[in-house]
Amino acid sequence: MTINDVTAYMGTLGKNARIASRALAASNSGQKNQALNDIADTLDAARPALEEANQKDLLAGKEKGLSDALLDRLELTRDRIDSMIEGLRQIAALPDPVGEIFDMSYRPSGIQVGRMRVPLGVVGIIYESRPNVTADAAALCLKSGNATVLRGGSEAFHSNQAIAACIKQGLEKAGLPGEAVQVVETTDRDAVGAMITMPEYIDVIIPRGGKGLIERISADARVPVIKHLDGICHVYVDDEADPQKAFDVTLNAKTQRYGTCNTLETLLVHDTIAEDFLPRMAKAFADKSVELRGCEKTCSILKEGCIAATAEDWDTEYLAPILSIRVVDDMQQAMDHIEAHSSRHTESIITENISKARRFLQEVDSSSVMVNASTRFADGFEYGLGAEIGISTDKFHARGPVGLEGLTSVKFIVLGDGHVRS
What we know:
Elements: H1 3-25, H2 29-45, H3 47-64, H4 68-74, H5 78-93, E1 101-106, E2 112-119, E3 122-127, H6 132-143, E4 147-151, H7 157-173, E5 181-183, H8 190-195, E6 204-208, H9 211-220, E7 233-237, H10 243-255, E8 264-270, H11 271-287, E9 291-294, H12 296-302, E10 307-308, E11 322-328, H13 331-341, E12 346-350, H14 354-363, E13 368-371, E14 390-392, E15 400-402, E16 408-415
C-alpha cells in the first residue's frame, strides 16, 4: 500500500469503529457478556485454525532470526489458548462499570446532580509479539463498552487475523456489530502513524511494547495516550523495619519474576541497619545468581559480592537478575533518591513506624505506593480489577493498573422537574 492507501484504509477502520461505538454504548450488560462468551466458544472451536495460523508466524519468525524469547512469546500453545478462553469468560463475569450512577446530591436550587460512568468511545491499541493480547484487549474494551482498533506486531500477523475472525463471528452471533473490534490487516508501519493521528475517530491510544515504541507514539500522537515508559521500582528498608519482613519482601520483589515492569530494580537501605541486613540479603541473591551493583558504602560492606554502581544504574530498568543498591542516611534521602530516579511506577517502604509509613504514602509521587509489601503486587488482578489492559504512570484520567473502570470516563447528570435558574 502507498501512504495514501494506508491513510484511507485506517480512516475507514476509524469510521466503522466510531459507528460501532454508538451501538456498544446502547448495548446492555447481557449483550456484552453474551458476546464475550460467544467469542470464547468460537475460539474453542477454532483451535486447529488458530494453531495453523500460529505455525505460519513461528516459521516466519525463525526464518527472520527471532530470538528464542520472542518466539516463546509468539507461540500459541494449548495452555495459552485455554487462558485466552478463560480470560474472556472471567471478564464476562466481572461487574459492568458502564451506566453506574454515583455521587447524587440535591442542590439548593432543587436539582439533583450526580455522575454517570460511560465508555471512552474508541480505543486504539498498538502492541507487539503476543497474539493473546488481541483477545484480552478486545475483551476489556468490549466489556467497558468501547469499540477498539487493534494493531498487533507483524510477527504475529496470521495469528492475530485468525483470532480477529473468531471475535467478529462471536460479536455478530450476539447481535453486536462485527466492527466493534477491528484488527488492522496490513503490516505497513504507516498504519501506526495514521492511527495515532485520527482524533476524529479514536479517543485514546494504549501502546503495549518496548520503550522505543512507546516513546515514538507519545511523541507523535495527536490522540491522548495511556502508557508507562518503564518500571524503575524501589524498595526502601527503614531502620525501624522488621528484619524478616524486609528480607522476604525484598527477595520477592526482585526474584519472583525478572522481566516485569513491577520488579524491584533499586534497593535503598538505611545506614544503621545496612551492615546487618545487606550481607544476609546478598547471600540470598547470590543463591539466585543476581548481580549486585552498589554505592561506595554498599561495596565496602559486601566487598567482592558487589560491583560499583555507575550513575546510569540508578536510572536503568534491568528486567534481568541485576539489582542496584544504595545505602541512605534516612528516609528523606531515600525519598529524594526516588524523586530523582523513579519512573513513577511502584515504590515500597518496609517499616514498623506508622508515622513514617504515612509520610512515605503521602509524599512519594508514584502510581502505586506500598507499605511492607512487594512491588510485584502492582497488578490489576492483584488489585481486584479482574484484569488490566496496561499500567499508566501519568496523572490524568487513569493512573496505575488500568482495568475496566480505567477504560471509562464520567459525565455529569442533572435531574430536575421543570426547574429553571433564577
